[in-house]
Amino acid sequence: MSAVSQSAAVLAPRTPSRQDAPNRRLRVVEEPSRRRRPRLVYGVVALLGALTIGGAQMALSILTTQSSYELSALTTHVRELTWQKQILYDDVAGLSSPQYLAANASALGMVIDESPSYLRLSDGALLGAGQAALGASSVDAIGRASVPNALITDTPLITAPDATIQGAPVETDVAVTDGGVANTPPPLTDGLPTPSTH
Amino acid sequence: MTTRSTRSPRRRTVIALAVVLAVLAGFIVRLVDIQVVNADTHIKDSMDTAFGASQTLYGTRGEIVDETGQTLAGSILEYDCQLDPLLLTQIDADIANDKSTADPWSEVSADIATITGQTPEDVRKIVTDALAENAESRYAKLERGLSTGQYRELADIGAPYLVCLQHPARTYPDGAVAGNLVGFLGVDGEALAGIEKSQNDCLRAENGSLTFQKGKDGVTIPGTEVQKAAVNGGTLQLTLNRDLQWYLQQLIGEQVQDMAAQSGSIMVVEVETGKIRAIAEYPTVDPNNVDASEDADRGSRLFRNFFEPGSTFKALTAATVLDAGGQNPLSTVVASSWETFANGARVTDAFTHEAHTYTLAGVLIDSSNAGISKFSERVDPATRFEYFEKFGIGAGSAVGFEGEQSGWLRPADEWDSQTTYNTSFGQGLTTTVPELAGAYDAIANDGLRMPLSLVESCLAPDGTVVEPALPAPTRVLSEQAAAQTREILENVAVQANYAKQIEVPGYRLAVKTGTGEKSDGNGRYKAGVYFTTMIGFAPADDPKYIVVVTLDEPTTVTSSAANAPAFQKAMTQVMKTYRVMPATTAPTLLPKFG
Lengths: 198, 594
Known about the structure:
- The structure holds two protein chains of two kinds.
- Chain A is mainly alpha-helical.
- Among the domains of chain A are: 50 residues; 84 residues, no CATH class.
- Chain A contains four helices and two strands, in the order αααββα.
- In chain A, a hairpin with a 6-residue loop joins β1 and β2.
- The N and C termini of chain A lie far apart (119 Å).
- Chain B has two domains: 111 residues, Penicillin-binding protein 2a (Domain 2) (Alpha-Beta Complex); 336 residues, Beta-lactamase (3-Layer(aba) Sandwich).
- In chain B, the strands form six sheets. In chain B, strands 2, 3, 4, 5, 8, 16 and 17 form a seven-stranded mixed sheet that branches. Chain B has a five-stranded antiparallel sheet with strand order 10-9-21-20-19, sandwiched between helices.
- Chain B is α+β, with helices and mostly antiparallel strands.
- Helix content of chain B is 36%, strand content 20%.
- The radius of gyration of chain B is 36 Å and the shape is elongated.
- In chain B, α12 runs parallel beside α14 and α12 packs across α15.
- Classes of the chains: A mainly alpha, B alpha+beta.
């Protein structure tokens, strides 16, 4: 639109200008002032500046790329370590469970005792019934394990490597060889055993 | 001037101008649309296109721990692996044409099978099935829920058509220990049962994301990462004790088997705080392997079931007449084993005896229905109803467990002549184990009933601790009435015919049994099978813990004596776990007959 109006405006004065022509006077054109030659030093500075900026940028870029490779390598390393950690965590999963501890203890012949007794240090009084353990556990953690744990179903017991908590039946040597007899230590005849010291 | 010849060129100019303007306007509208109106969508599109890769940052679901901080539920990573059948067949074709030196599928499938624990035939069948359905198939599910170890071994095979995707999963290090309460998640990570479900707001994690641009060799281009951090879930601490819970579960498991019962439970409540220290049930669920248990065993029966309590309610009636009826443990009634009351109601005892002059203590020691019915006349039914309500019967517990039921009790003015007496010994109404434990807490805790709780606190990742809001304790009895009721219940433990069976050497116990009748679903009682309960607390002179043992339809021994061995062992274990000191004084014996 503006182009159209501009061309109209240019066209319009053309005819009157021809009429004004006789009024023009000729005159000598002045010699154009000599252009000053640009100083070389500016150019050099500008060029060097541009090169420096470009160089710095390239250096920075190389550095960040370099470190990003390093970062990538470290990330991979972290990932591998995380995998290892998870594999190890999976390996020990369930080993801390009370079932496993109790089954291992049972396989060793340990029993869960009946009522406890406490020795009061201030006057040496025995609180509680003060009975000996009867050898029979109040629960059978290994023969009748009734608290399942899928994580350790096939994990061999540490104290009885041939048995598992629920899968393979447990042959507890202790229970079998003792034949149900109280699993208490032999009675003391010569007083408390004492270590020989020098 | 406006002739046809002069008008025509101008009109043409105007029309041309209008067309140009219209086109220009169209462009402007489109420009505004792209740059302003739909700018966000286009920016997103460009981000999606330019930022080639993105990954989900999984938040970790919070742990569930017991009162000592032992983990009951934790989070691990699992892997779902899939095959690309099309690529697989192409590679096999290349091998056949000597274009590739890779191992053929027949060999790789055997390797995969060894790792995943499937048979090689199964693995090959997955691929042939997928190809049979769609010859161009690019997806066949190999196996879900593989461990990190298996995933790494699969990755070491280096087969390009085998891809594994990681996702968070749940693990329960202790298996079925507290599995009835903790609950479990579905395969898609949705909380399906128990505390996992009811406390999901505390435990839930929010996933984040990381989008970035990748170089040709997979290196992230610096400065292109846009990260939205994941938010981990909070740590939920329960009031349970893991080791005690295991022992009691093992114990009730053995007892249910010994008594050939349908199911059984043991509940332990700390008297002073109302905190639940254990809820052992059998049969129950191992959340690591939910499929192994029946649907009915996958939750907590103890919260879900209500039952007719029977004689355990005699202690509540005794406490009521002690508190509101001006009675004392030595007040007497004359009762024979078969009594007819003025309103026509008939009450019989479980054993035949002549008319005795029973003390209130004697009525509970012998568990005489007729005796407690006579004592119940010392207060009016409305008062007895009011006390039942104060004891929390019919109101459920403050735990609010998923699917928790409450007992059912008609208002006193709707009691008919028989119900008026039957309610005094726990018939004609129902309750739940948590309600019963709460009621006995009022007796054990000097008349103040503490609200039961299962959740200790929720520790948010930002360090804030949120403790659940519990209702205020209820004053049910005076301290004196509570102490007298305890004295009576201690005499039950010492003088009842099962006293020897429940004796915990060195400790003073208070106890009451209940043999509740079961409905056969047709308005009658089942013959010969009962819901048996034994509830008690220790030490009787300064109660610390309440223990409830229930058995559903024991058959080896059908009465509440079936619960005695488990009760004795459970109470002993509770005393040991919490280092409760043995008694230094002896109980005061009350006479049975006045």
